[in-house]
Amino acid sequence: QVQLVESGGGLVQPGGTLRLSCTASGFTLNHYAIGWFRQAPGKEREGVSAISSFDGSTYYADSVKDRFAISRDDSQNTVYLHMSHLQPEDTAIYFCATGFGKDWRDLIATWYDHWGQGTQVTVSS
Hints:
The chain is an all-beta fold.
């Protein structure tokens, strides 16, 4: 059974850091592009970052560039999202998903399937 499980969310103060994990079971994660998305209450799902299975190239939304970093540990079958300088507007449920087709680099949810259940990130003092 193909499954993605996110973890590492929580409550953090503004300016703080968190590391989210996306762990796969039932398939080998490095065979797929992996993206991170987030969804805040009342807002549409937003693409945050993605990493290529081919050469490890990384992609970021402008809103998180220079603050977030995506990486993968193939030995753990896991992709990480390192988040720093967190702000209240980063509060959302964060999801990971496998990318397909040729447009996953655009961080559009249409080009992703096999979603995890999400992990809540709350940035508040």
